[in-house]
Amino acid sequence: MQSIGPKPDGSNRGGWEFIRLVNGLASDAFWSTDPMWKYPGFLMQMAFATESLSGSQYWASGPVAQNLDHRYSLTPDEKTYLAGRGIQADDLLVKMNARTKMRGSPRPRLCRALWRFGEVHGTLTKPVITLHTTLDTLADIRHESAYRQTVAGEGCLAKLVQAYVSGVGHCAFTAQQLLAGLAAMESWLDTGKPPTASAFPAGLGFDNTFVPPPWPY
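Predicted structure:
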């Protein structure tokens, strides 16, 4: 059976680059091997977009996503880049945008499941610290923008601190980074004051200047 994955000679890389770019994924996160999970980012992305999605839909008895309000697009520079790799991006985009027909299931079981396990409400009653690698191979870093916006909409930003670790990997934190996060939370609970950037030192790999891109969907 012939593999449909990226070929070693790079002959079908253009198609994979289209997948990466239309989803707005960083090149390093997509192509690098995750240091913790030992799989390349593209494989982790595809596994969750196919097998894991199928399992979720089976458990929920219906679709768990929709694309009715989404339009797939690329920048002119991205289209030019793909053309150099033999990919006519406009043709593919037309096909994709002709199929923005996926509806979320209205079935009660699915609604209950999404509300319980998937809905982010943003109402924080206790301090919350999030840690995220800047080049996560699986959980899109743009989730952090969406979460912050949701929390802000509920007027709860005072209870949220988001910290970022430079590098590639899904949950690929060192013991020192995790301990720094724990110490920051303990200090917050003890003093009532949220941690500042000094709690997440650059010497441990934290990037206090990083701002995640906006949520695109």
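Summary: The chain has eight helices and two strands.
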